[in-house]
Write a structure and sequence with these properties.
The protein contains three helices and two strands; from the N terminus they run αααββ. The protein has about 100 residues and is mainly alpha-helical. This is Aspartyl/glutamyl-tRNA(Asn/Gln) amidotransferase subunit C.
Length: about 100
């Protein structure tokens, strides 16, 4: 699957990143190679291979769900550059502000 330079520029814009034309071309080429390698996995013959749902040899370790005293909010927000009503304010990532 070919990743176009236009797609790289679009994702870069959404991520608030800026790349030179040379970097954009390089990213498009590299990402295309990565996607092609991943798509090769669809061609692997897995006939007779047991389905694996986890590689862990341990079961889930559970602990009691007990409420505990949390950290003081003022202490948590001490190093936050900008906050309002105990929410951390960050720069908008969408041009129109968005709802997300």
């Amino acid at each position: 699957m070919k990743i176009s330079e236009e797609e790289v520029r679009h994702v870069a814009t959404l991520s608030k990143l800026a790349f030179s034309d040379e970097e954009t071309t390089e990213f498009a080429t590299t990402l295309t190679k990565i996607v092609d390698m991943v798509e090769l996995l669809n061609e692997v013959d897995t006939t007779g291979v047991a389905i694996t749902t986890t590689m862990a040899d341990r079961r889930t370790v559970l602990r009691p769900d007990v409420a505990e005293e949390g950290t003081d909010r003022d202490q948590l927000f001490k190093n936050v550059p900008e906050a309002k009503d105990y929410y951390i304010k960050v720069p908008a990532i969408l041009d129109d502000g968005g709802d997300a």
